[in-house]
Amino acid sequence: MDFSLPQFTTIHHRNVWGEWEFVFEGEFLCGLRFIADRDLLSTGHLTECVFERSIQEHLEDKKITKVYKKVSTQLLEYLEGKRNDFDLLLKLHGTPFQIKVWEALLQIPYGETWTYKQLAEFIDEPKAVRAVGGALHTNPIQIILPCHRVIGKDGSMTGYALGIRLKQKLLELEGAMPLTFLE
After folding, report:
1. Helices 96-105 & 129-137, crossing angle to 10 degrees?
2. What is the CATH T-level fold of the domain 96-174, as seen in this structure?
3. Helices (H) and strands (E) in the chain — how many of each?
4. Strand pairing class (18-25; 150-151)
């Protein structure tokens, strides 16, 4: 999806985990992307916000400011281990198949994992395991649509657009896998 179109508002955000990009269409979250990590073992509070457009422009758009604060607060609570699910308005832009896969991700409980095959079977497309993987790779709302909870059939940390290290850290945070020591 081309989020550079005029109907979208992009906000660059920084918290203790690193740099994020939020994309809104009115009051709906359409995109959430992790850009670069800091120390993934850190915990703490919001340290800085950086806006792509001027701060004044965002303050004038009270609807965007309100939804931005809600998303950034809930994301931080999740990353601090204080939130298990999100209460946000989402608007998905993709093919019907991609949207079906992304919506199914919301059925994977916090702290659990499914295989690509389980997810394909859940959406009644048991032969579409590779296509499910492709849809997950293009997940526009990372973390909120928890594609990190999908693992290989042998339990391996296969494919994750944000990197295996982050996938492992998120699953550790949720208690879905034992803590490891990262170099």
Report:
1. 80
2. Arc Repressor Mutant, subunit A (1.10.10)
3. 6, 6
4. unpaired
Q: Which of 147, 170, 171, 176 is catalytic?
A: 147
Whether 23 and 7 have beta carbons less than 8 Å apart is answered as no
Cite the beta strand spans of 7-162 per DSSP E: 9-15, 18-25, 28-37, 48-49, 114-115, 150-151
The question of whether 49 is a catalytic residue gets the answer: no
Residue with tokens 């699910």: 85
d(CA 129, CA 159): 13
Residue 51, pLDDT > 70, answer no
Average pLDDT over residues 24-45: 71
pTM beyond 0.70: the answer is: yes
Ordered by start, the domain boundaries in the chain are 9-79, 96-174
CB atoms within 10 A of CB 54: 9
